[in-house]
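Sample A.
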Amino acid sequence: YGLYDYLRNSIQQLELPQRKAALIVPAFETLHYRLTFPKSKAELLSMLDMGSLYTFRYHVWPKGHAPTDYAKWRTATVPYRVAWQPDFEPYVVVRRDCPKYDQRFVGFGWNKVSHIMELDAQEYELLVLPNAFMIHMPHAPSFDISKFRLSAGYRGCLQTLKEEFHQDLSRRYGAAALKYLTAERSL
């Protein structure tokens, strides 16, 4: 409730049109198909503490959202900056002129990860909003995630695309892009 207005106000207060910043909307999830949506951060925290909500994908892919620093978010009252980490894939609000999603990553796998890497390579600030949140509702697995899970060929193609993407980042950003390649190899 009120997310749209909060985002618009945050964009103005943080002078987003004049700076390179990605506003991170912390993501949560429920395992219930029906949910009374929390009307405030306090309600969300209560639901989180009671176990009816969870931080997004904490049980299957914690690296995707862990850099959001949910422990800090719980008590934050002002936006705070976080650093890029491998496999970070938050939901973000950015200016229209930001880098587009890489079209190689359609279907399942690496669309948000590659986008955040590109934003980081262009020195975007990654700012977590203290009073914004979204809740992912359960749904049947997509056709594309099923292909990813069942097809070694699909996973192999995705790996090839990741390698091409890293090469492209190296060409565009030089030595600054080495941290992405190093991070990938250490995983």
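Sample B.
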Amino acid sequence: PHAAPYDYPSGRSKKIEIPNGKVGVIIGRGGETIRNIQLQSGAKIQVTKDIDADPYSATREVDLTGTVDQIIKAEQLIGEVLAEADGVGSGSFSRRFSGQSSDAFVMMVPNRKVGCIIGKGGETIKNVQAKTGARIQIVPLHLPPGDISEERRVQIEGNSEQIEAAKQMVNELITEV
């Protein structure tokens, strides 16, 4: 599809839907979260205002404008914020903006061990994150139907000590019988 020449100067626009109840999470206190996502991604993000939103819709439209890469990055960051709001992450999203340099380490874990890492109601993964200060994500959290992968990716983000500590704890969890 070719973009019309009078399109946004910054490139493309994409609409995504987010659950109504999560609009506040994306915007953040005083607009802080959405500002950070815009800064990190370079995309312009506009959430449909309450008055313009369909009161009967379960979702709210969010407009992302920018280059393809910026839009992809913005979508990814929004996804992370939403996952965190669902208790999958650890609320460390804001920590990533504090200017600490963070690294990421990826390890592969057998599917049947993913439950050991997450724990009941996400308790274990929250504890590991709280103890180590690292951020841990399991990708994908739920395998899509028909996916027969034997392993899933565990992403650990933080500084080198945090990653080391989290790596050790995750390894202990998956070697327990």
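B remarks: The chain has two domains: 13-95, 103-175. The first strand starts at residue 12 and ends at 19.
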